[in-house]
Amino acid sequence: MGHTPHEIVNPLTLSEPVGYAHAIVVRPGRVVHVGGQCARRPDGTMVGESVAEQFDRALANMVEALRAAGAEPVHVVDMRVFTTAMASYRAAGEAVGSVYRRYMGRFYPPMTVLGVTDLLDPDALVEVVCTAVVPEEAGSGPLRVETVRKPAEGAEGAMVRDPLASGGSGWTSAEGDR
């Protein structure tokens, strides 16, 4: 598993984090939000009797959703785990940690584990949610006026927003001031 392109921040003035980071500084990029993933197979059936078994499938589903959106686990900048069985989650710490490392490697983003009374599926013990940021490629960045395509036919005279325009409102004609 690769290293995150983002900057992990763990101040020495806070307790040493175990299995999470205190903060992360995110590079600019494309944001991917992954909604709650639980231990469902593609056919919708829930799998796993224990917290660790369900966490395994939920994390696999999260990674599948990330990859389908063009992101990787190292792009995760925030993760939340919801569980209806906090005591079991704590007791299964070693197994849960092993499952986590299989999917996420030794990359630990800021993460929160929350004990909840119920999840949407009554058979779910665990649900995982995350946000990832896929960094911009080198040389990419905001669209510059020089790279704006010629306006579509009939759009002459339309006003477009130029985020890099200095002074003024940042609005210019679609033809540009060339």
Characteristics of this structure?
178 residues, alpha+beta, four-stranded mixed sheet, two-stranded antiparallel ribbon, 3 helices, 20% helix, 25% strand, globular
SSE order and pairing:
Elements: E1 7-9, E2 23-25, E3 29-37, H1 51-68, E4 76-83, H2 86-91, H3 93-104, E5 111-115, E6 126-135, E7 159-161, E8 171-173
Parallel strand pairs: 4-5
Antiparallel strand pairs: 1-2, 3-6, 4-6, 7-8
Helix pairs in contact: 1-3
Major beta-sheet overview = 4 strands, mixed
- Main sheet strand line-up: 3-6-4-5
- Beta content comes to 15-25%
Q: Into which percent range does the helicity of residues fall?
A: 10-25%
The structural class is alpha+beta
Radius of gyration: 22 Å
Gap from first CA to last CA:
47 Å
Q: Count of helical segments? A: 3
Write a brief structural summary.
The chain has 178 residues and is an alpha+beta fold. It is 20% helix and 25% strand.
